[in-house]
Amino acid sequence: MSDHEERVFSGVQPTGNLHLGNYLGAIKKFVALQERHTCLYCVVDMHAITEWQEPEALRRSIRELTAAYLAVGIDPKAHIIFNQSQVSCHAELAWIFNCVARMGWLSRMTQFKEKAGKHRENASVGLFAYPNLMAADILVYKATHVPVGDDQKQHLELARDIAQKFNTDFAASIAARGHGDAFFTLPEPLITGPATRVMSLRDGSRKMSKSEESDMTRINLADDADTIAQKIRKARTDPEPLPSEPAGLEDRPEARNLVGIYAALCDRTVEETLAEHGGAQFSAFKQALTDLMVETLTPIGEETARLLTDTGHIDAVLADGAARARTVAEPILRQVKDIVGFVQG
Ligand code: TYM
Question: Known catalytic residues?
């Protein structure tokens, strides 16, 4: 990897079942991007522990997510799959960013407010500083593109603000060390397509999420065909048939969600999907959606389960990925330390 090429970085937390939102908002795009870019896909285990995780469950989830990355078709030889805690550069740069980012910036993060809820005093310090670690994940590789779902947009903006402030605060030192007028380029979020925000199957105003209590609100990548069929059959809808134009989905959040999911699963636009299914009753559309979902997701679930029978292989993929990630991150972190004024051996 040279220092100046386009580089993709993204991460997913190993905190339990992966769901359709993770797949359509992020992981499916990871696969497509590897055709034309150099990619690093991270299992962000240090982010996971910002909220309590049972150690054995965490270990299992790290391996499950790694297996899922492999099962969807990410190539661990051409690209890099690794877990964050094996590359200490992330934590080291995050500390420097703790001293660049401002309390006020982090206080405005909606995800922190949602997760900490009324018990702010009881939230971990890590949960508050979480976006600084996320900025470090991206910038320690000087990544240029970051595929994520819509809910990560604000964190990405913060990463750009941190990069910008670092460049400004240390402008003289950056120039004196021959890096020109900016050390970090600002990473671009890639938030595209018809399913950047997949909603709950039971309430079109709520995001599909791992933390939602009822399993009927989400499709898990590990769900079998019968479970998928049952969840789609019971998904909330309205009594009208599907419209033929996207404008007809306004004020119909559940219909819009199912159409967006369908479109994203088969790589079509919402317009194309409605051109084909406009006028259909939900009973027929739900059947088509179930067939498409089963066809797409069940092979991934089965392959993930198969890969998990050999944890030695999974752990070897992570160790190899971490070693290769370090070769990219270490020289960049060294330059950052030099810019900041640390003396190094
Ligand atoms: P996480 O683990 O919550 O989610 C992983 C990815 O799935 C996307 N996603 C969704 N997309 C559409 N609809 C939904 N309902 C939905 N739910 C989740 C998320 O947007 C994300 O892309 N902070 C990140 C992990 C992270 C990261 C990074 C991402 C850590 N460091 C550096 C990019 C770059 C997170 O908690 O994602």
Answer: 115, 207, 210
